[in-house]
Write the structure tokens for this entry.
Amino acid sequence: MRQLDPSTFVAPVQLRPEEVAGLAAAGVTLIVNNRPDGEEPGQPAGAEIEAAARAAGIGYRHIPIAGGFNLDDVLAMAEALAEPDGKTLLYCRTGTRSTFLWALARSELGMGREDLVARARAAGYDLGPIAGSLS
């Protein structure tokens, strides 16, 4: 897991159902899936990740991103980020979409562009493609 802010982490790879129980032990209380089902052959379905999360006592949200971000996606992520007491883990295929959506949501909640860019960079992500959309 790569840290984006004190309570938010991103997975740089596809999350697998068998990995979820270990996330609970690491303090993860919410998983946010940003992949649409069927995006890639062999990808676990969101329902599989959700079932593993529920079995481990972890909350689950599915905010699939394909082809761009809209305000509903950003607001859904902002709501998810405000929800848990504990760690939130975001994932997609590489973590880029999740990081972009995290940044757009945090910007909507008042975090500044420079801070967002620096935090994303420290986690290995470049917000350049969306920097103009950050406040």
Remarks:
- Residues 37 and 47 are 9 Å apart (CA to CA).
- The chain has a mean pLDDT of 96.
- The helical segments are 20-25, 46-55, 71-82, 96-108, 113-122.
- The radius of gyration is 14 Å.
